[in-house]
Write a structure and sequence with these properties.
It is built from twelve helices and 20 strands. By secondary structure, it is an alpha/beta fold. It folds into three domains: about 160 residues, Adenylosuccinate Synthetase, subunit A, domain 1 (Adenylosuccinate Synthetase, Chain A, domain 1); about 90 residues, Adenylosuccinate Synthetase, subunit A, domain 2 (Orthogonal Bundle); about 160 residues, Adenylosuccinate Synthetase, Chain A, domain 3 (Alpha-Beta Complex), CATH 3.90.170.10. The strands form five sheets. A ten-stranded mixed β-sheet has the order 9-7-5-2-10-1-11-15-19-20, sandwiched between helices. Strands 14, 16, 17 and 18 form a four-stranded mixed β-sheet that branches. A hairpin with a 5-residue loop joins strand 3 and strand 4. The longest helix has 22 residues. The N and C termini lie close together (about 10 Å).
Length: about 425
């Protein structure tokens, strides 16, 4: 079977980890293709165990799937090893992990610059996690990045680090009044990481090509989401990579013709973390309700997520941009008990209606949502497993979301557990 791409349709935190975990037992490879440890997936197993994954693909909890960190990911080896150790301590087999030698490394100077630049920007800050993701991608584009494969050649590693720190230490010390990074200490630290990571480093492109040739199923798992895409999101309040479906080909090294299905995950409402425009954001009791009932706190940072009503303009944009074949709506249960559940169906900007995403950053910042109100429901839906089990108003809500997005809703999440879903169309044949 050709490759399947799994992406987020909003600003992240939609529940992609749960979907990957559901599919993990039925696929042969799970590949993480973008981002770094600025992203987090929370997976809850049938026995109630909770796993917070940051760099490891969510398929790590599958008993048999190979798990791959692709070339498009930026890797902090200290964080990755801590995650490997944490999973191993809980009995999870991590020997199936493979890391692309072409993935770039997050270095100490990346983390230092990320934190100090955010503080320096003050009210104009982007809202990064401070984990060095942006600076690592910046060095990659500037062709001065350090890759995973460089851990295997101490001479190359030193040369590249010395070249990078010639500039970065000047910035840290002379511009930001911070301590310079020591070359020798960094080399010693990273060569220790190399010893432990060496068994996992591989030419992952060939591995995936061979798997596709054998007819095996490859699931490509994006971090973050469409509206955080460097090119197609709410720039500059975005991540530093391409978590959209197109980024899967670049970040994993597989051809676009291999992709047969694109699954997008969206909450039944909308959230985002960090700065940037958010037309449907709620500042009232409804926003507090969504945050409290939905446990809307970042997996990686613990930050409160900003909450708002479902934005069909954003969701339709994501479906069209990614060529979505199946939409998964999560956390429908969080809306239970609300008398009215609005859906944003368009924007008003300077007296003009927009049914599609406005072209300019300025217009999007000034967008006022146009709402369509739907009656809520009070029944407990966590035991629902088919459309017929859902209250009439919940079914109408999902039907309207499907109509507005122009893509079929295949699965509806009615609770956090792996099995708490209404499956309307199978995600895998």
């Amino acid at each position: 079977m050709p490759a399947i791409v799994l992406i987020g349709a909003q600003w992240g935190d939609e529940g992609k980890g749960k979907v990957t975990d559901q599919l993990g037992e039925r696929v042969d490879y799970v590949v993480r293709y973008s981002g770094g440890n600025n992203a987090g997936h929370t997976v809850i197993t049938p026995d109630g165990q909770k796993y917070a994954l940051h760099l490891m693909p969510s398929g790590a909890l599958s008993p048999s799937a190979m798990i791959v960190i692709g070339n498009g990911v930026v890797v902090d080896p200290k964080v990755l090893l801590a995650e490997i150790d944490g999973l191993a301590e809980r009995g999870v087999d991590v020997s199936r992990l493979r890391i692309s030698g072409d993935a770039h490394l997050i270095m100490p100077h990346h983390r230092a610059l990320d934190r100090v630049v955010e503080r320096y920007l003050g009210s104009a800050r982007i809202g990064t996690t401070g984990r060095g993701i942006g600076p690592a991608y910046g060095d990659k584009v500037a062709r001065m990045g350090i890759r995973v494969q460089d851990l295997l050649d101490p001479g190359i590693l030193r040369k590249k680090l010395e070249l990078a720190l010639r500039e970065k230490n000047q910035l840290l010390f002379k511009i930001y009044n911070r301590k310079a990074i020591d070359v020798d200490a960094t080399i010693e630290e990273y060569l220790a990481y190399a010893e432990r990571l060496k068994p996992y480093i591989a030419e992952t492109r060939v591995m995936l090509w061979d798997a596709l040739d054998r007819g095996e199923t490859v699931l490509l798992e994006g971090a973050q989401a469409t509206m955080l895409d460097m090119d197609h999101g709410t720039y500059p309040f975005v991540t530093s990579s391409n978590p959209t479906a197109g980024g899967a080909c670049v970040g994993a090294g597989i051809p676009p013709t291999a992709i047969s299905r694109v699954i997008a995950v969206s909450k039944a409402y909308t959230t985002r973390v960090g700065s940037g425009p958010f037309p449907t954001e709620l500042f009232d009791d409804n926003g507090q309700h969504l945050r409290k009932i939905g446990h809307e706190y970042g997996t990686t940072t613990g930050r409160e997520r900003r909450c708002g009503w479902f934005d069909a303009v954003v969701a339709r944009y994501a479906c069209r941009l990614n060529g979505v074949t199946d939409l998964v709506i999560t956390k429908l249960d969080v809306l239970t008990g609300l008398p009215k559940v609005p859906i944003c169906v368009g924007y008003e900007i300077n007296g003009e209606r927009f049914d599609e995403m406005p072209m300019t950053q300025t217009d999007f910042h000034h967008a006022t949502p146009i709402y369509e109100e739907h009656d809520g429901w009070w029944e407990d839906i966590t035991k629902a497993r088919s459309d017929e089990d859902l209250p009439d108003n919940a079914r109408r809500y999902i039907a309207r979301v499907e109509e507005l997005c122009g893509t079929r809703v295949s699965v509806v999440g009615v609770g956090p557990g792996r099995e708490e879903n209404v499956t309307r169309h199978p995600l895998l044949p």
